[in-house]
Structure formats: structure tokens, C-alpha cells
Amino acid sequence: MARSDVKIYLSDAGRARKRKRTLSALLVVLLAAYSALLVFCLLSFRTGFFRAKDIEITGNREVFSAEIMTALEAQVFAGSYVKYALGFKNILIWPDTIQNPGKFLPQVKSMDVVKRYWSKKIEIRVVERKPYGIWCMGTEAPECFWFDGDGYIFKRGLSTEGNIIKSVSDLSGRKLGLGNRVLGEDFFPNLKSAFDVLEASGIGTRSVELKDLALQEVAAKTAEGPLIYFSLRFSAANFLDLLETLKGTKAFSKLQYIDLRIQNRAYYK
User: Fold this and answer.
1) pTM of the model
2) What is the rounded distance in angstroms from the CA atom of residue 41 to the CA atom of residue 35?
3) Residues 64 and 183 in one domain
């Protein structure tokens, strides 16, 4: 046999042994994976190893725990047959955070899930939305809702006027409801700044009116003086000193209006 033939034979034999070792290693990996999957299935379906003994809901004051539990069942299962098979109390099917809880419960801002494997317990930490003000639409029998500090409508309310509760009368003809935002992200912070300067300056306000959203402005009806116009295009914070000064004058109650709709400029009469 020629040397070249010997080299070819040895090379072929080496490749054959290498393929055999590779196949053996792959078989071992597949068997290990299958065994792990089998153990996992046995622990998940046939035993209570991953089954929680208790699901505790904390942090809720306004929303009933039963309502939260019903909403959780809809969101945790999310139409998955595998999750249904594993069961609602199986810790493995639970995410770390419940996404968009306001879809089912407008009063809930967030829900975080704490999974305690050793004590077999699931804790749902609920953060409810805090009321910032009341938003009313229309003049005849206005429809009113509470909204939070993000401008999110989360609960029905009643029409009100005064300094204790921030109130907006929306006469623009819009129809808003639970889960909507009263204003877009470009405008809502500026509305909040208007409320802030009114409160900081000590000017009592009966209500704030939004007549036409296209004008991008609101008008505050004060309890003891003029109508104050604010723009929704920019923050009202720079007008605080001016309002404090005007509030301290005897002529304040005689003013008809204060116009703050132009940035860094004020007009009053």
C-alpha cells in the first residue's frame, strides 16, 4: 500500500472517530435535556413543587382584592393553554410585572409580582392612582371624572368648584372616559404649572375652563379678582413673581383679566 493511501485511510478513520464522538456527545446532551424536561414536567404537573399556597394582594385601598384577582386571571393566563394547564397558582406562569393594569382596572397604576419559591407565596404589590383633580365635560349635566398627576382618567367624580379640589371645565366638545388622558404630554405639564402658580401665589380659584383645545389655552376663574389666561404651550412658572405682586395690590380685585398667553409677557386690565 502506498504512503498516500495510508494517509487517506488514517484521515478517514480519524474523521469517523470524530463523528462518532460528536454524535455520542450530542446524544448525551439530548438525553440530559429530555431528562430535565421530564423532571420539570413532573414537578410542574404532577406535584405541588411550584404551586403557591397563597396569593396575597397588598397596597390596595380603593379597589377590592376580588376585582384585582379577577383581572389578574385574565392577564396572567393571556389565552395560553399551557398556563391554563399549569394552573393559576403555579409560580412559573407569573411575570415580574403586570403590564398595563389600567386596561382592566383604571384605578390601578402598577402591579408588581414578588415570587417566593421557598415559602410558596405570590405577593401582588398594587399602586393605586392618586387623585389630582376633577375634569368635567359639558355645561348641562356635566360628566365628571377624577384624573391623576399624569393626566390619566381613572374614576368617575362630581362637579365641583373651589380651592380645595382642582377642577377643569372642558367646553371643547370632547368626549373622554376612563383610561383616557385629559391632555397630551405636550400640554398637561403646563396645565399643572398653572395650578402650581395659582396655589403658590395664594390666588383662590373657582375653576379652570378649556373652551377650545385648538387655541391651546385655559382661563382660570378666580374667587376674588380677574380672569387669568394661561397658555398650554409653555410653563407658567415664570409668572409666579408677577402674580404674587399683583395679588398684593389693592387693585387686584378690580382687574378684569390677566393675560399670560405670550411667553415672558403679561397684559392686564
Assistant:
1) 0.78
2) 10
3) no
